[in-house]
Amino acid sequence: MSVPVFAVVGHPNKGKSSLVATLARDPSVGIGTEPGTTIQTRRFPMRVAGETLYTLVDTPGFQRARSALEWMRQNETDAASRPSVVERFVRLYSGEERFRDECELLQPIVNGAGIIYVVDGAAPYGPEYDAEMEILRWAGRPSMAVINPIGNPRFVDSWENALGQFFKVVRVLDVMMAPFTQQLEVLKAFGQLRDDWRQPLNQAVDALIEDRNRQSDDAASVIAELIAAALSCQEIKDLPKEADARKHTAVLEEKYRGRLRQMERRARREVESIYGHIDVERREAEMEMLETDLLSKESWLAFGLKKRDLVTVGAVGGALVGGVADAALLGTSFLAGTVLGGVVGGALGYFSSDRLADIRILKQPLGGRRLRCGPTRNLQFPFVLLNRSRLHQALVAGRTHAQRGILDVDTINQAAHDLVEPLDDATKRELARQFDRIRRTQAGSERRIRVLDQLTGTLARLLDESLL
Ligand SMILES: Nc1nc2c(ncn2[C@@H]2O[C@H](COP(=O)(O)OP(=O)(O)O)[C@@H](O)[C@H]2O)c(=O)[nH]1
Ligand SMILES: [Mg+2]
Question: What structural domains and CATH numbers belong to the chain?
């Protein structure tokens, strides 16, 4: 079965390269504000699991469409000969400066590629485009048009009328921002251009959906690991007997937060690479914000969590009570700890704790003392971390490879409502149970692996819901 090949052509600076980057998921496609960024034709195969689903050919824009068409008109004998006139044109002028860009962009079409003609729906239609469309019609290949509304859709209607006369299929697609489902629609439309492309493009759509699901499963697994690691995270400092513990707490706490920050950053990188976004520059409110998040009602509301959820969360199957009992046990008899930060005032402290983690001073068997920061017992913490991760994942999954700017991840300023659905009560309870189990299992243990699997499953479901 032949792999469909499409040449993406049009006027300079209309988003041809952006369309190629989006549909071939390729960040290496050159996109520029200056016309003339694309000088040479280049093929970009869309591969999933090593198999090429289709190939897009990026091309330079038309420069001298009118003179080119004039030459073709002079050399035509009858309508049936038009494709061969275009071929002759390319053969004749290849390597010459005058029609360099025309030859570059027509070559793949002469070689058999289908045509995708890109126009800008924010700029008015004008007769200078007629020559371009006429040449493409002469080439006699299956073709469709894409109207890319760069910034605004003001002229989309008039474009639709004009393009409808030259192209059987016309679609509006914001090539830089197009959501996944719209990309699939356009691929299906490509399939209508030629009978023997229908099946490969339907298969391509299936493969892309499957790949998308795999990506969200992988992202779920990364986020589950992040939450587990963050819940287990602790920072320890051993001190000689005479040392003043209070002098070390600030440093220890900062180290602890630094570790959490690093974990989150690493997980974000991993999620980005799952979606093929490597080396994305990120603007984010990091863990400092996380603590603000923990304290701020706004962030709770933004994520659809309410103060009363703490009670729901805390009441899960006696989980919290169990947790507190453990701590009390460790604190008094086993490690003879005291607590700075005033949280171990009993169970109530845990319900209302706004702190990320506390520092404990533990007596060592051979004299000296051990300072320990974390693991956190804050109940909001895993939820806030989860929602930060969901927001980031949604932004990354929704980012096309034509977008080259900074990825702006800011939990509170973003319209988090729109991107991540609030958790329903059943899911909150399920998550609370799983978080609690994580707190009670050792990293690397069989039980931890089982809980991680369950949490990954819950998260995969959550991420899938936001997929389409
Ligand atoms: N805002 C916005 N900018 C776009 C869109 N498509 C293209 N651009 C910008 O327009 C410029 C030209 O895009 P490019 O894809 O290189 O156009 P080409 O010359 O036709 O290949 C770049 O600065 C793009 O970022 C779009 O859909 N929205
Ligand atoms: Mg280009």
Answer: 5-193 (3.40.50.300), 213-465 (no CATH)
Q: What angle do helix axes 180-191 and 16-23 make, rounded to 10 degrees? A: 100
Residue 8: CA count within 13 A, CB half-sphere: 31
376, 277 Cβ separation under 8 angstroms = no
Q: What is the pLDDT of residue 53?
A: 93
Q: Using a 6 Å cutoff on CB, does residue 150 contact ligand 1? A: yes
Q: Is 38 in the pocket of ligand 1 (CB under 6 A)?
A: yes
* Peptide bond between residue 200 and the one before it cis (omega within 30 degrees of 0): no
**Cα first-last separation, the chain:** 30
Helix axes 307-314, 319-329, angle to 10 degrees: 70
CA quadruple 367, 372, 378, 383: dihedral positive or negative? negative
* Ligand 1 near 17 CB (within 6 A): yes
Residue 106 CA to ligand 2 centre (angstroms): 15
Decide: 146 and 171 in contact? Cβ < 8 Å. yes
Between 132 and 249, the higher pLDDT residue: 132
3-state secondary structure of 370: strand
- How many CA atoms lie less than 13 Å away from 107 in the CB half-sphere? 20
Q: Are strands 359-363 and 369-373 parallel, antiparallel or unpaired?
A: antiparallel
pTM comes to: 0.85
Q: What is the mean pLDDT of residues 19-44?
A: 89
**Where does residue 116 rank: exposed (0-12), middle (13-18), buried (19+ CB within 10 A)?**
buried
- Residue 70: per-residue pLDDT: 96
> Which token pair is 118?
């890109």
Other CB atoms within a 10 A radius of the CB of residue 299 amount to: 21
